[in-house]
Design a protein that fits this description.
This protein is mainly alpha-helical. The protein has 9 helices and 3 strands; from the N terminus they run ααααβαααβααβ. The chain has a 3-stranded antiparallel sheet, covered by helices on one side. Helix 3 runs antiparallel to helix 5 and helix 8 packs antiparallel against helix 9. 32% of the residues are buried.
Length: 260
């Protein structure tokens, strides 16, 4: 077999390096596998040339913030973190020892007044677990938005500017989704959603496109989608465009529906 053209090899190396710098788990716990080079479309060597610069910069607060945010996302995901991030993810998991598999898909309806109090206490306990997940993301957002990090973006390479923008949007999406979930728990604790007791023994949380809970969640989701649109526009024909479009497909909204 003839060797592949040099441009193809260079592109492969760059794209795999980018995925290793900003590859994240899904927003929700799924059986999806992280995006791999083989699943991506071909990219123009001329376009990617602008993103080649990856000179080491160990003192960059922006790069450290991106690494820490990515570690936080992998720490709260129940799957295995990439080998290159295993140390940082393990440290983050020790700090935030709760993962997304604490999120329940639904609840059985309580039977009787005493059971109702136990039900609401259980939901309140679940809310506390979600609050711990939110804390991990809030810390990541605070670091990404730190004035010295935002200022450092101006002097970073085009590649790391795109890395930063994507990671900020990705953490915002996760945060918005968890705020939506937290709002759903708060609403069922306050008032039970409608159901026919003869047909339905409880409720399930169904996915929907629009968020309807916490105002802050809707605001952050809107900010994230605007940033994803900016990434798509400013990084056309690159892995960042593909990653941004992929994240936009995730429904962040939730609603209670009666369930058997």
């Amino acid at each position: 077999l003839a060797p592949r053209p040099a441009d193809v090899e260079r592109n492969k190396k760059l794209v795999e390096a980018v995925l290793d710098q900003i590859g994240t788990p899904p927003i929700k716990v799924t059986h999806e596998t992280p995006l791999r080079y083989d699943a991506l479309p071909p990219f123009s060597a001329q376009t990617l040339k602008k993103y080649q610069d990856d000179s080491p910069n160990p003192n960059s607060p922006l790069r450290q913030a991106v690494i820490n945010a990515r570690a936080a996302l992998w720490a709260i995901y129940p799957g295995q973190a990439p080998a290159s991030l295993s140390v940082e993810a393990a440290m983050a998991r020790r700090k935030y020892p709760v993962t997304l598999d604490v999120l329940k898909e639904g609840y059985r309806a309580p039977a009787g007044d005493k059971a109702e109090k136990q039900f609401k206490d259980r939901v309140e306990e679940d809310e506390r677990k979600v609050a711990m997940l939110l804390r991990a993301l809030q810390d990541a957002l605070d670091e990404l938005r730190d004035p010295k990090v935002v200022e450092a973006r101006q002097s970073e390479s085009k590649r790391w500017q795109a890395n930063y923008d994507f990671m900020l949007a990705r953490v915002q999406l996760e945060y918005a989704y968890l705020l939506e979930y937290q709002s759903a728990l708060g609403s069922i604790r306050k008032e039970f959603p409608p159901r026919d007791p003869d047909l339905h023994g409880g409720w399930k949380l169904a996915s929907r496109a629009r968020l309807q809970g916490d105002h802050m969640g809707r605001k952050i989701a809107n900010e994230a989608h605007k940033l994803l649109d900016k990434i798509i526009k400013n990084n056309s024909g690159t892995p960042w465009e593909v990653l941004a479009k992929r994240e936009k497909l995730t429904n962040l909204g939730l609603e209670w529906q009666p369930a058997k």
